[in-house]
Each structure stands twice: as C-alpha cells, then as structure tokens.
Amino acid sequence: MTITLDYSAKLILITGGGRGIGYAIARALASAGGTLAITYTHTDASDIAKALCEEFGVVAKAFKCEASDSKDTDRMVQDVEACFGKKVDIAIANAGVALWKDAHAMTDDDFRRLFEVNTYGPYYLSRALVRSWLDLPISVDPDVSQVDIKSINKTLGKQILVVSSISGLVAMSPQRQAAYNASKAAVTMLSKSLAEEWAHLGITVNTISPGYVATDMTTSDDPKLKEWSREWNYRTPVRKFASAEELGKFVALLVSDQQGGWGFFTGSDVVVDGGYTTL
Ligand SMILES: NC(=O)c1ccc[n+]([C@@H]2O[C@H](COP(=O)([O-])OP(=O)(O)OC[C@H]3O[C@@H](n4cnc5c(N)ncnc54)[C@H](OP(=O)(O)O)[C@@H]3O)[C@@H](O)[C@H]2O)c1
C-alpha cells in the first residue's frame, strides 16, 4: 500500500507554528501541499511563513495571537477565515510554555499562567472554531447557550489536535514542574471531553503526548539543564530525545485523511515518548 500525503485542499491552523514542534509540523504539512496559518506571540513568524511558501510553493501566512487571550483568539480565527476565504479544516493547538519551579515557591501568577496558555488556550481556540464551523458568532458575547447543538447533525470533517505531553500522565523529574504537569493533564482530559461533545458533528479532537523533544524548551547552555538533559536521556528507554522534525512528520501522518483523519480517530491520546512512560 502506498500512502500519499496530500493536504492541498486543507487549511491548517497551527498555534506557535514559528518555532520548535509547531514549526516542524508546519513544515511537514507544507511539504505535503497544505495551506497554512501559523500563529506566534513574541517571535514574528512572518519570515518563516514566507520561507515555507518559497520552499514548498504553498500559501502560508503568520498571524499574531496571544493564545491565553480568548478575544485575541476569536479575532485571529476570524482574520484567518477572511484572509483565506474559507474555514479552517485542521487545527493544531501546539503553543505552550513550561515552568521549572518548586511547587512551594510558585506565585499565583506562575501557576495561573501555565494554565492560561497550556489549557485555556486550546479551549479558547476549540470554542472559536466550533462556533465558526457551526456558523454561530465566534465571539462568546452573543449568548448562544440556547442553541441545542446535540440536535444538529452534521459531518463537518474537521479535526483538532492538541499538543499535550506525557507530563500530563506522569510527574516528570528531576525538574519540578507541577503546574506544567497539571495543565497538560487538564488539556488531555479537556480534549477527550470535547471529542465526546462534538463527535456527532464530524469534529474529531485528539491529543498527542510527546516525551522529550529537542527544542528551545528543552535545550540550552544552562549547566543545570544540561545535567537534567543527561538524566532525561537516561530515563528514556530509547536513550535519546525525538527531534522536532521527527515529531512534525509523525503528526503529518496522524492527521492525514488516509490515516487518523477519516473520522473514527477521536478522543485519543497518542503517546510518543521513546518508551518513557513504560517505566
Ligand atoms: N519540547 C518538548 O520536549 C515537549 C514535550 C512534550 C510536549 N511539548 C509541548 O509541545 C508544544 C511546543 O513546544 P516546543 O518544545 O516546540 O516549545 P518552544 O520551542 O518553546 O515553542 C513554543 C511555541 O509556543 C508559542 N507560544 C508560547 N507561548 C505562547 C502564547 N502565550 N501565545 C501564543 N503562542 C505561544 C511560541 O511562540 P513565540 O515564538 O511567539 O514565543 C512558540 O512558537 C508545547 O505545548 C509543549 O508543552 C514539548
């Protein structure tokens, strides 16, 4: 059987698509012809989008959007639709932040921030998208709680994939990251809940839970990080990190119509961790 990845009919939105895992996913999908909307918040991704267009002959655009801000997310989804003249087909909620800090020392803001970006962010994005897909006003200001979506029967053929983490399954160490772990556990459960709630609409919602991937989040010249890094390698049975590129290609397979994207794959958490959680 030959599997050909063809995303030429798909508009794919990737949050945090300018760097790390998000960029690798964007690159893999661009190489298969996808039209891309990539978001960033600090590091302008416009040149990255331009380079993807030039290298792969696709259309890719960058949009500034703070993932933890629901109004900004609503606006961004509207801007993406207006820019491309169509609705998003596949959304990858990838933007995330980590914090290594002892639980006893975290401030309220530290703890809140992790949830705002890692948990609320994917929720805000999913909510904006489902409202768009159902032709409801994207902004939550008009109250649509009277709309009984259980009675709507559609086969929209849309996908949401959230980049969670094995940190939502096991308490990673030796670094202390209770807020990160909890925010990822929450987003994994949130995604399962959305999958159940929206299954009859033809919307699938899944998470991937990677183990350690070499990105800015996990690599630097900081001696402490280097020491942890050796420990992380040791604790990963395959004795290495995944590269962002490997993960990007994996996701491109997962959400393709020929693989996960045919509508039955939903409510799942795909663990891809070099065996870390087997121990
Ligand atoms: N690396 C790992 O080992 C690993 C393992 C498991 C799961 N993950 C998850 O994978 C995802 C990507 O991580 P990564 O390793 O690629 O990290 P990264 O290299 O630090 O990149 C993070 C990305 O998220 C974006 N972002 C961060 N905060 C944001 C915010 N408030 N609003 C909008 N965008 C924001 C960043 O945009 P800017 O460039 O504009 O800052 C950047 O594109 C995260 O959800 C992370 O938790 C990573």
TrEMBL record:
It comes from the Eukaryota. One of its GO terms (molecular function) is oxidoreductase activity, acting on the CH-OH group of donors, NAD or NADP as acceptor. Gene3D superfamilies: NAD(P)-binding Rossmann-like Domain. The keyword Ribonucleoprotein does not apply. It holds the Pfam family adh_short. PROSITE patterns: ADH_SHORT. The keyword NADP applies. Keywords: NADP, Oxidoreductase. Belongs to the short-chain dehydrogenases/reductases (SDR) family. This is Uncharacterized protein. It comes from Apiotrichum porosum.
